[in-house]
Design goal:
Helix content is 23%, strand content 29%. The chain is built from six helices and 16 strands. It has helices spanning 77-87, 121-129, 209-214, 240-257, 284-305, 315-321; strands spanning 12-18, 23-40, 47-48, 61-68, 92-93, 98-99, 102-106, 148-149, 159-160, 162-169, 175-182, 187-190, 193-196, 229-236, 258-259, 269-278. Strand 12 (187-190) and strand 13 form a beta hairpin. Helix 1 crosses helix 2 and helix 4 packs across helix 5. The relative contact order is 0.20.
Length: 322
């Protein structure tokens, strides 16, 4: 067990980041194809091919899910993933060629680094070249490079977000995992306590976003745009409709770890990928509950693995200052 999304056999994860521009992208590749569903809860999403994932639509499997920074510009990175997969002859067979089915979502990180640098086709392609079945870096990597949390006072008082993963394996062989890029407006909680979010004026203590909002504090406009995006993956055999239901339930993991969540300025999105390796009767209540747990713990892992960068304070720095 790697204790991350790579515990689901058949998946590879590749990441690329630009630490100067503070942006990056992450790709989850399933060369044999994975049944996939999605649930979008935020009101400002940026996505590719999510309509295709509707259970009523014909294509049944995807070959990659991309998580990217760069806001809507970052969707270009998915084209690099398509290029890579086409070169490997991976995709949906349409007779004359194979068309890679690539879906994905973006988060807003334009304001924290160099907004002129975004994940592009080249970065998406490079992420595929970096894809591994055995190694997954968490924290300031891929789509988590420019991620931040706690934006109620503006970007001068945020804590570093990141990308994190967690996995659970049952005795019957079922694995449920998640990979989440945490870029939230609200605070991140562990056991009911804020561990990352809005900082005080001295940037050495955490405040409470919800309590500040009740007092009328709010830095408005697109300076607070955010979005948390991620992938739940399982080796259990699921239909597209069942994958969508798991995505719906797994948003509870967002709600357990982040508050406020699913705001008008969010594009919060979760994809669920099923490789179908384990053919047991799916208990959606159990799988959805497991998904909720792995999403919550992936968020916490993203925060705890993140490092301070370009004067953005991290959880680790806050702990060391105590």
């Amino acid at each position: 067990m790697y204790n991350n999304i790579l515990d689901v056999k058949g998946l590879k994860v590749g990441q690329v980041e630009d630490e100067k521009a503070l942006t990056g992208c992450t790709v989850v590749i399933c060369e044999n194809g994975a049944t996939c569903g999605v649930d979008v809860r935020g009101s400002a999403p940026g996505t590719r091919e999510t309509d295709l994932l509707d259970p009523i639509n014909s294509v049944q499997k995807v070959h990659a899910v991309v998580l990217s920074g760069g806001s809507a510009f970052g969707l270009e990175s998915t084209c690099g993933v398509s290029k890579y997969l086409e070169e490997k002859n991976i995709g949906f067979d349409v007779g004359v060629c194979k068309v890679p089915i690539v879906t994905g979502a973006v988060l807003f990180d334009l304001a924290v680094g160099d907004y002129k640098v975004r994940p592009d086709k080249e970065m998406g392609y490079k992420a595929c070249l970096n894809a591994s079945k055995t190694e997954l870096k968490q924290g300031n990597y891929g789509a988590g490079c420019g991620a931040t949390v706690g934006k109620v006072k503006g970007l001068d008082y945020v804590t570093k977000g990141g990308i994190g993963s967690y996995s659970i394996k049952l005795d019957n062989g079922i694995v449920v995992s998640a990979l989440i890029a945490v870029n939230a407006f609200g605070d991140v909680y562990e056991d009911g306590q804020v561990i990352a979010g809005v900082l005080n004026d001295d940037k050495n203590e955490l405040l409470n976003t919800y309590e500040m909002m009740k007092q009328g504090v709010m830095k408005g406009g697109f300076s607070i745009d955010n979005t948390t995006i991620g992938v739940v993956a399982t080796n259990a055999k699921l239909t597209k409709a069942q994958c969508k239901k798991i995505s719906q339930m797994s948003h509870d993991g967002y709600a357990k770890a982040i508050f406020p969540i699913h705001t008008p300025h969010d594009g919060d999105t979760i994809f669920t990928m099923s490789t179908g390796e384990v053919e047991v009767e799916a208990d959606l209540t159990l799988l959805g509950s497991l998904a909720t747990e792995v999403v919550e713990k992936s968020i916490i892992n993203a925060i705890k693995n993140a490092k301070s960068i370009q004067n953005i304070v991290s959880y680790k720095e806050l702990q060391e200052s105590k």
